[in-house]
Amino acid sequence: MIDSSDSGADTAMLVALFAACEARWDEPVRHDRFLAACRDGGAWAFAAARYRGALDARAGDEVAIACLARVRAGAEVALAAGPGRRHAAREGDGDGRRHGRPRAVTIVVVLAVIVLAAVLVLRLGKARVRAAVDLDPGAVEPLPTIAPVR
Hints:
Layout: H1 11-23, H2 28-41, H3 44-57, H4 62-81, H5 83-86, H6 100-124, H7 126-134
């Protein structure tokens, strides 16, 4: 048996789904259901072990080879997505978009900096901005002072 506590998968359900695959090995729908349950539970290692065992029992079996390729691809996608996305479906996080808000905030901040730079260039003039960026205090003309209104 596998330890599914780390992956969140229901072991009994996975065992039953794979038994259904073995009962009618040539029906792709059964393999699709099993692999979908493994994806949702993060049980790619369980799926790989089952299909490797089937391949050992039936050398050169095309179904087992194709399913192992799907398992490998799914596991690679899950690993590339990182831990937050791997378990998003299990945590009830909608479609797994956990990083959308920080991305949006980053985009807004970058756009604000670009707008601020454009405003500074338009208001101060290019020469003053260049001098301020170069941090040459002698190159910047002092701003005119405004006398208080009485």
